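Reply to dn_fold:

You asked what the input looked like. This is it:
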Amino acid sequence: MSQFSSIIPRPLELEVGQGNFQISRDTPLIADTPVAQDAIAWFVGEFYSQSGISLRQSGEGASGAITMRLQSDLAPENYVLSIRPEGVEIRASEASGFFYGAVSLLQCVPFESPIGVGEWQLPTLEIRDAPRFGWRGLMLDSVRHFQPLSWVKKFIDVMALHKFNVLHWHLTDDQGWRVEIDKYPVLTSVSAWRKQSRVGHELNGGDDDFDGRPHGGFYSKQQLRDVVAYAAARGITIVPEIEMPGHATSVIAAYPDLSCTGGPFEVSPKWGIFDDVFCAGNDDVFRFLEDVLNEVLEIFPSQFIHVGGDECHKTRWKECPKCQARIKAEGLADENELQSWFVRHFDTFLSAKGRRLIGWDEILEGGLAQNAAVMSWRGEEGGVAAAKAGHDVVMAPHQQTYLDYYQTSNRDGEPLSIGGDLPLSKVYAYEPIPQSLSADEAKHVLGGQGQLWTEYMLRPESVEYMAFPRACALAEALWSSVQPRDFDEFLSRLEIHLRLLDRMNVNYRPLNK
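and this is what came back:
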């Protein structure tokens, strides 16, 4: 199989012609519209990283050039890539379309010469391409194990190569807090750090199985703004997740009065679900979270803000006089409706700021504001219920999208994982639209995403190993059109595609392992 036909995700239409185009250090790049500048800059940078050769941008037309031209009738993420002997042309209407055209062009280049040497023959072809879904995401957990910002940018680079357009960034949880908040500096002096971390599976060991090493870190506001801009230049929106009302141990370790009992607490060294959560009857909790969100909104311009909403034990609420008083005052039936009331409060808050709330599928329990969107992780059921009720949905069922699951049923030689069994073939076969949805209901499915929970991924290289090549398969499931999928054909493309990941120093799991 040739390089040009190894593009991942598979384009909508690809037609091969006669002849070749030669690309070398003398090939100029031309953009006839400012919205193509990010795509030009990215292509020049990636071409240099892969080849060691600097291409030049030109302001004038020239034969043998790579040209980006505006075609206003194309949808924002659509593009046309034409490679002819006399030159290359990428047509799109917006920055994202130009970027995806540049990504496909890069994947057509057979980077086989030594770094700094060579010219390459590209076959003539025409690609007309468009994504199937508007939400094509990966979720990165930077709480359980913190990653340096330089690596987060590398991860974004690899996402961009696969035309993912959403990085759902899990930034707060029981085990840490990763966002600088000016009004609450104790979040970064206390909540960002834990004394030690769990070693191995909790069910397989005693309570003293910890590594004894402090762990933590946080991203400054400037660092976060920098990575938001870095991602945006690659067609990726970062959706931050600020957990509420559960998974709040790191916060109440710093501000125990925001809990039902008043503590004391420590930033959790264990994984799992805990009884102590934000007190839903305490007005100070709402003021605190609104303050936090106001600063988060200044950093992240994303339409959606993720508020978690999952795995909130109601034990403390049942015993808490303030929570019980809130239930009575608001005319709520029980603690499930109290959580719904809590979530609706922040849906109203975010809507007033021009944003939309999204949360894990537990936010459906007890009722949900119409504007809120649901991320369905416990299976398809939550997504189906949400779509039938008129809510937008991002499908993230753990059975097909949890990339922290084992990659094979044979555990020998595999790194410790949380469990499960999610081989590459199962990810490739994933269909995000549940069969039980009508055509109109299916319009509420925005797309899907893969999850990378990092309890057992101690180093960034471990995240790469668990993510790739399964994320390559997921990218195709979310981008490419519905058609009978041929896993063997995908593997033949993937073998060539992985050469790019080799040159990017991605620690992916080998196909032959």
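The mean pLDDT is 95.
Hope that clears it up.
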